[in-house]
């Protein structure tokens, strides 16, 4: 079915109850029901454009490199999904396309007997290289002899208050009020900004009109709550890379979609997915996991006596609020990095050296928070803004590397998408890891690095735009706890 954009109040703040009043009540779909539909030979390869996509899953491998040997290691674990940290949200479009092509080619070369389906995981507030990334994946699959009937777009992230109703994507901060995503700070992103909250209109806008809004198939809540057969029947209309958007308000909506997709795929349809974080969990039939305990974080062993390192690069308002709340407690030493100094070639090296020295010294006595100055440096050019972000992130990497040479922290938290990716792949030199699970329900991910200098150090991927004001302090409390850190 399609919905005319003019009939959709996509620019209005609405209450959840009013937005849902035209649709049936949610249905209960279990993770076990979805798991039962999964074929053992199948594996999802998730190209994650920043590492925060792992926040909704547990006990899955994650790669920050994508050579064939890395894929073979991950596929040998026989997991239903493998995450590949591409970090393309920090890249320009040409680099992002090249990286997507390389990942797909190497995954296909290493698959053996596995049947691969590809997921392009991106932001639940619609920032990222779209429609570029799923289009590139579809092109590579076509070269390999596989067609794509549809690209399924599911940005919903109910755990974090991002829901899609009647094709309109909303953001909620926990209240009954739903704000169209185009009215939030995320829509003003210097690189990936947009003006439409209705997903067909967003797709038309981001494709520069090449994909008209009225050509987009919309699976609304009425259909999503009518059962797998109804969903599969609608999906049978998809062909030649049709764009499909799906409503979702609760986890059961995502599971219902998963059952419909499984049925349509059994009948021969082939899909790519462009999704927010929880889709993979629902699609593979994984139940929501309870937050990790200290014992689980440290593998049942005694937690090290050292203190933890928190690295904050994100500048969104929610991160700043969480940082301010943490620092009010006075339990952490603070090392602030002057972004202006980092962007000045004559001052950059001294700023990095001073941060390493201060953090290394303070870690002997306290938890340490290393954060960038809170004034965001922006330019009119999206590509120039990305270049500034990469320059600052490279400095953060150098600081983390310097700290690691002086001694192993008890844990490392990285706050912000690009920050998390660069700290993981370069600062800590994590090439392979296992996603342990969440530290807060469904929104903050902990990894256990496998091999390399950070082997066994809990690494926490903390998105910039999730959690309440107390979230950062709450996570540190779990990571710093002595009780429960033994088996």
Descriptive notes:
The model is unreliable at 1-8 and 483-487 (pLDDT under 50). With 487 residues, this protein is α/β, with parallel strands linked by helices. The longest helix is centred in the last third of the chain and has 25 residues, at 382-406. A hairpin with a 3-residue loop joins strand 17 (432-440) and strand 18. Helix 8 packs across helix 9 and helix 14 packs across helix 15 (382-406). The strands form two sheets. It has a 15-stranded mixed sheet, with helices on both faces. The chain has a four-stranded antiparallel sheet with strand order 1-9-8-7. The protein has 17 helices and 19 strands. The chain has helices at residues 16-20, 31-36, 68-76, 93-110, 132-143, 199-206, 221-224, 228-235, 251-266, 278-283, 294-297, 317-329, 339-342, 348-362, 382-406, 417-427, 471-480; strands spanning 14-15, 42-48, 60-63, 81-85, 115-121, 150-154, 162-165, 168-171, 177-180, 217-219, 242-246, 271-275, 309-312, 332-337, 367-372, 412-415, 432-440, 444-449, 459-462.
Task: Walk me through the topology.
Blueprint: E1 14-15, H1 16-20, H2 31-36, E2 42-48, E3 60-63, H3 68-76, E4 81-85, H4 93-110, E5 115-121, H5 132-143, E6 150-154, E7 162-165, E8 168-171, E9 177-180, H6 199-206, E10 217-219, H7 221-224, H8 228-235, E11 242-246, H9 251-266, E12 271-275, H10 278-283, H11 294-297, E13 309-312, H12 317-329, E14 332-337, H13 339-342, H14 348-362, E15 367-372, H15 382-406, E16 412-415, H16 417-427, E17 432-440, E18 444-449, E19 459-462, H17 471-480
Parallel strand pairs: 2-4, 2-5, 3-4, 5-12, 6-11, 6-12, 10-11, 13-15, 13-16, 14-15, 16-19
Antiparallel strand pairs: 1-9, 3-17, 7-8, 8-9, 17-18, 18-19
Helix pairs in contact: 3-4, 4-5, 8-9, 14-15, 15-16
């Amino acid at each position: 079915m399609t919905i005319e954009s003019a009939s959709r109040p996509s620019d209005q703040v609405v209450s959840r109850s009013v937005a849902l009043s035209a649709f049936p009540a949610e249905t209960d779909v279990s993770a076990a029901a979805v798991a039962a539909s999964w074929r053992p030979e199948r594996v999802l390869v998730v190209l994650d454009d920043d590492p925060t996509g792992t926040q909704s899953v547990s006990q899955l491998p994650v790669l920050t490199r994508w050579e064939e040997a890395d894929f073979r290691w991950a596929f040998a674990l026989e997991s239903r999904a493998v995450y590949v940290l591409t970090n393309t949200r920090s890249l320009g479009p040409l680099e992002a396309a090249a990286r997507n092509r390389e990942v797909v080619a190497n995954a296909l070369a290493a698959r053996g007997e596995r049947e691969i389906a590809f997921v392009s995981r991106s932001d639940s507030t619609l920032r990222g290289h779209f429609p570029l990334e799923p289009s590139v994946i579809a092109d590579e699959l076509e070269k390999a002899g596989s067609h794509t009937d549809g690209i399924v777009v599911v940005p919903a992230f109910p755990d974090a208050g991002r829901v899609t109703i009647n094709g309109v994507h909303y953001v909620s901060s926990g209240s009954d009020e739903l704000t169209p995503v185009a009215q939030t700070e995320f829509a003003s992103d210097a690189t990936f900004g947009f003006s439409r909250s209705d997903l067909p209109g967003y797709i038309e806008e981001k494709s520069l009109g090449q994909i008209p809004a009225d050509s987009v198939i919309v699976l609304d809540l009425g259909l999503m709550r009518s059962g797998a057969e109804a969903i599969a029947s609608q999906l049978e209309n998809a062909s030649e890379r049709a764009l499909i958007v799906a409503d979702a308000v609760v986890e059961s909506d995502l599971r219902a979609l998963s059952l419909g997709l499984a049925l349509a795929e059994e009948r021969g349809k082939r899909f790519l997915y462009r999704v927010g974080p929880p889709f993979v969990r629902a699609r593979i039939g994984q139940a929501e996991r309870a937050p990790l305990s200290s014992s689980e974080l440290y593998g049942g062993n005694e937690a090290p006596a050292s203190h933890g390192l928190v690295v904050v690069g994100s500048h969104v308002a929610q991160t700043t609020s969480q940082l301010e709340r943490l620092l009010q407690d006075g339990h952490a030493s603070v090392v602030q990095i002057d972004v202006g100094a980092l962007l000045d070639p004559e001052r950059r090296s001294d700023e990095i050296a001073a941060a390493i020295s201060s953090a290394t010294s303070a870690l002997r006595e306290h938890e340490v928070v290393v954060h960038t100055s809170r004034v965001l440096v922006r330019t009119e050019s999206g590509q120039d803004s990305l270049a500034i972000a990469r320059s600052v992130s490279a400095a953060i990497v150098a600081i983390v590397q310097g700290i690691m040479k002086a001694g192993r922290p008890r844990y490392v938290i990285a706050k912000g998408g690009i920050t998390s990716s660069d700290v993981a792949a370069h600062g800590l030199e994590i090439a392979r890891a296992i996603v342990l699970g969440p530290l807060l329900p469904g929104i903050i991910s902990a990894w256990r690095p496998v091999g390399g200098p950070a082997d066994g150090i809990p690494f926490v991927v903390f998105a910039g735009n999730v959690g309440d004001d107390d979230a950062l302090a709450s996570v540190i409390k779990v990571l710093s706890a002595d009780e429960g850190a033994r088996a």
